[in-house]
Structure formats: structure tokens, C-alpha cells
């Protein structure tokens, strides 16, 4: 089944409902969007000579054209390659060359820098140009017949440990992801909407699918990105509004001066993921915005579908394990199996810490043109996530850290998130990141990078005492570095590799 049938179905059943909006202005109904998609799909094949299986790159900031470009690619049987709009030109060049994309749709801000890249045979089209709009005047094409295991979305990883790898996400993967949204994450009614304040090239764009399937509108902020004040304004305009957000975005939203007083009745759900939401931050977010939060844990290799913590469990304060559940990433999605294993891939007893493995119809087909990485990551038929966690007897998974972020000091494993949770209990601490630094005697020592709240100066002695009151002495940071801000990528994830590099440079100087 082709993903484009989701749009066709909603266009037939709910054609007059709004499908795409820019800020508070509706641009297209579902019937209009489906016509534009079918016409664009026809031009991609007839005018540009693309054939099913070819890659079409989308180097675009969030914009209304993103929605129709994605569905047009699938309608024509092509593989969409959405690329983070904030990458360096060299990263663009690698992804465009490695994917073999023959056509790249761009927003005006990227047209000039990408035109200078040395990518053979690549044609660029500005989606805000008259040339692009003229493509909508062509004849509609029928939805391409595809195999469910054909690649729909080539999702390139961040490449923090080397060159980015292209996870081959199939039509089947994304259809199963779409179906699992409804029992595991949230309900959607026709006429609801999703606000794409996070990049459509990643999780927010993947959540376009269940929203389209339910005839909900895609809302693009006029800013094209995340602005807390704009989100609050749009929550007063639209109804049934969902948004996907990284925890750092949630934190910025609830700290906005108008967050506590704005009319947010139109904001139905914030699905957060992509990094840890500390318990204290989660409680504060619910205190400010109400019971609107759901959490998902997924990876590019199993998009948005490993575990979920529902809105109901976020507010089940009378459950005896409430705190532990809030600190977890929830239970496995209904469409996957999740195990925690030792170094030999043997399932560990409840409560023991090991690597998280996933199996199910949402797991990628493999890595694009990289059989060795595919064999390693999917060995034994399970996706090896590289994440470290523990499963309790009730089936709730608690992540400790990425395996590469584990600190081993004196032969003992120290999980940075546990230390970070404790340090965030100090009222003067705004953000914290814990990493390991080489130590001649212990192997590694724990170093905490701390961002203080405005006007605060947390004392090292007070931070030490917090740790001694809550965790084992050996887990306590041996050093504290007070910094103005933590380095983050475009999605709000803290770049611990950069922090470790700073420490290494410091040690070598």
C-alpha cells in the first residue's frame, strides 16, 4: 500500500476540511491538496524523467510546500530524502551524492549555497518560484503501484560518530507507525491539526502521516520554526492542536512570560521525545500547561515507535510507581517487541541494565548502500539501538543513556542521566550535562557542565551535598564546569561529544 493513499482517502471523505495552513491562514483544503500532489507527481515523472525508486531530495526549511512535496514523491513511487535545513554545505553534498538524488526541491534560503555544490546531474527547484507553482497545472497522475517494502523515506542520521547513515524507511514501516499512533500515543479527530514547530525533516514530519490519515490540518508557523510566543498565539487560533517537541523546546515554551496566562485551550497534545525530559521539568510543564503531555521514544531506524508514555500515565499521580513511570519512556508500542540484553544479546532479568533491542514492522529495512552497518545494527533480526536501559516487571522501560555516554570510573558504571536528575533538583540549576573525562587512576571521572539560572550561583558544596543525599558517593561529579550554555544540535539535543572534546583539549593544553 502506497502512503499516498492516506491523503487520497481523506480527500475523498473530508475534502472541504482545511489541510494546510500557514500560521492562522488556511491555504488548501484536502481536496485541493490532493489535486496539487497528483499534478506534481505527474510532473516529477513526465517532465523530470524520475521513475519509481529514484530519490528526490527535500532541502527545505518548514514551509507549506513540504507537505505536498512529500506526498507527491510517494504518489509517484519515489523515495523522499528530507534533509535538515541547517546542515553544513559539505554535509548536504555528502547526502545528495550518497543518495543519488536527481532532483532537489529547496527553499530560497538554500538555493544559492546548494547550487554551488559539486553533485553531478542534480537539478534544483525553488519551491517558492514561479517554476515550481507552474508544476501544479499539469495533469494528475495515478498513485504509483509500489511494494510495501519499497523505501519511502531515506532518513539520514546525525553522523555524530562518522558519516551520516541513511536509514531505509519503507512504506510498510511508516504505515505501521501511523496505525500505532492511535492506540499508543493519542487520538486525532477530523478537523484537528498538528503544528510543525520542529523540523519536518525529522519526527514532526513523520507525525504528518497519522494526522493526514485522520483528516487533520498541517499548520506551518509563519516563522518557519519554533518560537514560543508564536506557539502560544496559534494555540488560541486553532483547535485540537498537537505538536511534536524536543524537551528543550518544552522548557522554553513553559518559561515564556505568557505561558501561564495564555489561552491554550486549543493546544490538545504535546508529544515530546528526542532526548530526556527530566522529572522535575515534566512536572513543571504539566503545572503550567495542564495534562497535555505524551512521550515517545524512537529512533530514525524505528521511526517514533519504540515506547510511549501516554497522557493518562503522566497524570496518574496516585499510582505507587508514579515517579518511576514519569522517569521512564513508557511501554513498548503495540507493534514492536522490546528487550534489554547483555553483551551477548541474552535477555536480562527485570531491573538489570543493558542495551535496548527492538523488533517489529516499524524497524528499517537497513542502511542505504552500507551492508556492513546493516548487518551489525540488525544482527539476529533485532535493531540494536545503542541505548542503555532497564525494563521493570510492569513493562516500563527506563533509559539510562546512550552506550557511548556511559561513564566507567574505577570499574563501576555511572549513568549520566541519574546524576543530572539529582543536580537539577537544585533551584539554581537551569541545565546540566554530565560526561566522563579520562583519569589516570580511575579510567574516567565524572564532570558536570552546569548552566545556572539567571541571577543564581549554585555552590559546588551544595551540589555535592545533593548528590551525597541522593546517589552513591562514587557517582558524584569530581569536577564542575559552570558555562553560559550547553552546545546543542538543531533539534535541541545536547552535544556531549563537544563537551568531551572540550575536556580533551583542556587536558592537552
The number of E-state strands comes to 25
Radius of gyration: 23 Å
- Specify the overall morphology: globular
Overall number of structural domains: 2
CATH homologous superfamily designation of the largest domain: ANL, N-terminal domain
Q: Briefly, what CATH class of the largest domain?
A: Alpha Beta
Q: Largest sheet at a glance?
A: 9 strands, mixed
Instruction: Output the structural class.
Output: alpha/beta
Q: Note the beta-strand portion.
A: 25-35%
Range of helix content: 25-40%
Uncertain residue segments: none
Strand order of the largest sheet: 2-1-10-9-11-12-13-14-15
CATH architecture of the largest domain: 3-Layer(aba) Sandwich
Total of helices: 18
What is the overall pLDDT average? 93
CATH topology heading of the largest domain? Rossmann fold
Report, as a whole number of angstroms, the end-to-end distance.
58 Å
Oligomer: single chain
Which structural traits does this protein have?
Rossmann fold, nine-stranded mixed beta sheet, four-stranded parallel beta sheet, 18 helices, 25 strands
Amino acid at each position: 500500500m502506497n502512503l499516498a493513499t492516506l491523503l487520497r482517502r481523506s480527500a475523498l471523505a473530508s475534502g472541504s476540511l482545511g489541510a494546510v495552513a500557514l500560521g492562522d491562514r488556511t491555504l488548501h483544503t484536502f481536496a485541493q491538496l490532493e489535486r496539487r500532489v497528483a499534478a506534481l507527481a505527474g510532473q516529477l515523472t513526465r517532465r523530470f524523467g524520475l521513475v519509481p525508486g529514484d530519490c528526490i531530495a527535500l532541502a527545505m526549511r518548514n514551509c507549506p510546500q513540504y507537505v505536498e512535496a512529500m506526498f507527491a514523491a510517494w504518489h509517484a513511487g519515489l523515495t523522499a530524502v528530507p534533509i535538515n535545513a541547517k546542515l553544513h554545505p559539505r554535509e548536504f553534498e555528502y547526502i545528495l551524492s550518497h543518495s543519488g538524488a536527481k532532483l532537489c526541491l529547496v527553499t530560497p534560503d538554500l538555493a544559492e549555497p546548494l547550487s554551488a555544490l559539486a553533485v553531478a546531474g542534480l537539478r534544483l527547484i525553488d519551491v517558492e518560484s514561479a517554476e515550481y507553482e507552474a508544476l501544479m497545472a499539469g495533469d494528475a497522475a495515478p498513485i504509483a503501484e509500489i511494494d510495501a517494502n519499497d523505501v519511502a523515506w531515506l532518513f539520514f542520521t546525525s553522523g555524530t560518530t562518522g558519516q551520516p547513515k541513511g536509514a531505509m524507511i519503507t512504506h510498510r514501516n511508516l504505515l505501521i507507525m501511523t496505525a500505532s499512533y492511535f492506540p499508543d500515543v493519542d487520538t486525532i479527530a477530523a478537523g484537528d491539526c498538528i503544528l510543525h514547530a520542529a523540523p519536518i525533516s525529522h519526527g514532526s514530519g513523520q507525525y504528518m502521516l497519522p494526522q493526514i490519515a485522520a483528516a487533520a490540518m498541517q499548520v506551518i508557523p509563519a516563522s518557519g520554526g519554533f518560537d514560543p510566543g508564536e506557539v502560544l498565539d496559534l494555540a488560541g487560533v486553532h483547535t485540537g492542536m498537537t505538536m511534536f517537541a524536543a524537551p528543550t523546546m518544552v522548557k522554553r515554551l513553559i518559561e515564556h512570560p505568557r505561558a501561564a496566562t495564555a489561552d491554550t485551550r486549543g493546544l490538545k497534545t504535546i508529544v515530546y521525545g528526542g532526548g530526556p525530559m527530566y522529572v522535575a521539568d515534566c512536572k513543571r510543564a504539566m503545572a503550567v500547561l495542564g495534562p497535555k503531555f505524551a512521550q515517545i521514544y524512537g529512533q530514525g531506524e524505528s521511526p517514533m515507535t519504540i515506547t510511549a508514555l501516554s497522557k493518562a500515565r503522566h497524570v496518574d499521580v496516585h499510582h505507587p510507581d508514579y515517579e518511576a513511570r514519569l522517569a521512564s519512556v513508557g511501554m513498548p508500542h503495540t507493534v514492536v517487541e522490546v528487550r534489554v540484553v547483555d553483551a551477548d544479546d541474552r535477555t536480562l532479568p527485570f531491573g538489570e541494565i543493558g542495551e535496548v533491542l527492538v523488533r517489529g514492522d516499524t524497524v528499517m529495512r537497513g542502511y542505504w548502500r552500507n551492508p556492513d552497518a546493516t548487518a551489525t545494527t540488525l544482527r539476529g533480526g533485532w535493531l540494536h539501538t545503542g541505548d542503555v536501559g532497564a525494563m521493570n516487571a510492569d513493562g516500563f522501560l527506563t533509559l539510562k543513556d546512550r552506550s557511548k555516554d556511559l561513564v566507567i570510573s574505577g570499574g563501576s558504571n555511572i549513568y549520566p542521566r541519574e546524576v543530572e536528575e539529582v543536580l537539577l533538583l537544585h533551584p539554581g540549576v537551569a541545565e546540566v550535562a554530565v560526561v566522563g573525562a579520562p583519569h589516570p587512576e580511575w579510567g574516567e571521572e565524572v564532570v558536570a557542565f552546569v548552566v545556572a539560572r539567571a541571577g543564581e550561583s549554585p555552590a559546588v558544596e551544595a551540589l555535592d551535598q545533593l548528590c551525597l543525599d541522593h546517589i552513591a558517593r562514587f557517582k558524584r561529579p569530581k569536577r564542575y564546569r559552570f558555562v553560559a550554555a550547553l552546545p546543542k544540535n538543531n533539534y535541541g539535543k545536547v552535544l556531549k561529544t563537544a563537551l568531551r572534546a572540550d575536556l580533551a583539549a583542556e587536558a592537552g593544553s
